Amino acid sequence: MRSTCGLFYDNDQLTVHYLIHLKKVLSLVYIKALLCSVAADIISTVEFNSTGELLATGDKGGRVVVFQREQESKNQPHRRGEYNVYSTFQSHEPEFDYLKSLEIEEKINKIRWLPQQNAAYFLLSTNDKTVKLWKISERDKRPEGYNLKDEDGRIRDPTTITALRVPVLRPMDLMVEATPRRVFSNAHTYHINSISVNSDYETFMSTDDLRINLWNLEITNRSFNIVDIKPVNMEELTEVITAAEFHPHQCNTFVYSSSKGSIRLCDMRASALCDNHSKFFEEPEDPSNRSFFSEIISSISDVKFSHSGRYLMTRDYLTVKVWDLNMESKPLETYQVHDYLRSKLCSLYENDCIFDKFECVWNGSDSVIMTGSYNNFFRMFDRNTKRDVTLEASRENSKPRAILKPRKVCVGGKCRKDEISVDSLDFSKKILHTAWHPYENIIAVAATNNLYIFQDKVNYDMKNL
């Protein structure tokens, strides 16, 4: 009898412990869910359309948010340039590849706008495996007076139809609709890192780590492989493709960069498979600067043609380089983004920050370039005057119509009042994605889950930075 009571007592204790443990598990699940919801809001791409009137952002939760620029009014002329939310839609959902037991996350890797041909807007968005073509359109009228159905859409009884009605359009509140028009899938074994629309506006390419595919915008079930660097034996793999882009004016020319710091210019007129490049751009490494991290920091994270098509801009971990298409031997210009981090590469390697992929952008006239850094800093370089500036995107320094003050980073010794020590930089705050208005001095900067839009003041030139 005592043993039986003791058994119940032990079971009761076990139940209590189990409930406590279950509460801990539930609380951990709740915390994890909160972290996932915060991570889903992190912006993963930013892109202006060809006119600059629209700005699209994609995040890790698979959502696309489109901002529209305010129209200028006589009463509030200063509001010209402010962007408000125009449309929000879920572009991609999480998937699971059962054949490979692989989870495909919904994160939007890239967004590319198509030139506007009519009243609607079109954009391409991609996650790791699937590219989608979206149509964004406005509707401010609704049809009324159907003959075969009621106003709510239900089919009418034919016996009740006694007269012919002429449908009419009635005004309604403006509604913005985002509808998927094409889905381009099942063409990539590896993760898609970039997409680019061709200047013929009929084709685009999607790029993964080892292959580049060419698509027709009207055909979803077939693509053409134009680059394949996958070796027969994967153990012999030495480099991967990191980014690719079409020439802005020549529909037969494109460029792609690699993890070895090289850029290859290809001509689709030469052959169907562009494994043999037309031009090869690579800067020889200085043997005196070689270290354990040399290959990692030389990997190119972004490549962009200039608007004129004459130059190429590439971003590696520490520098931005500008290349002349007519000179393959060395870059035309080299700009140090955060050279003060060279002494901290070991710690950056340990916290995986050394693998961050920073983007770079041109301004509309190709005279100024911009790229991101840590501590929510972003850098601008004037190609004409060779002057540069470091600015910070933060809520404290970003009040409406406030002037951004240049920031400086000091290395060692005492820092001045307006300087910040390199040891005080916050590496969790990083600006990976930036965009520049195609014609005006308006920039968009993504800092984790915050989007900052800065506009040049009237009669103020960014070249004077």
UniProtKB/TrEMBL annotation:
Keywords carried by this UniProt record: Repeat, WD repeat
Keyword Repeat: yes
Gene3D superfamilies on file: YVTN repeat-like/Quinoprotein amine dehydrogenase
Gene Ontology CC annotations of this record: protein phosphatase type 2A complex
Tree of life domain: Eukaryota
Keyword Repeat: yes
GO molecular function, one term: protein phosphatase regulator activity
PANTHER family in the record: PROTEIN PHOSPHATASE PP2A REGULATORY SUBUNIT B (PTHR11871)
Complex and partners: PP2A consists of a common heterodimeric core enzyme, composed of a 36 kDa catalytic subunit (subunit C) and a 65 kDa constant regulatory subunit (PR65 or subunit A), that associates with a variety of regulatory subunits.
Family that this chain belongs to: Belongs to the phosphatase 2A regulatory subunit B family.
Protein name, UniProt field: Serine/threonine-protein phosphatase 2A 55 kDa regulatory subunit B
Organism the protein comes from: Cyprinus carpio (Common carp)
Gene designation per UniProt: LOC109095915
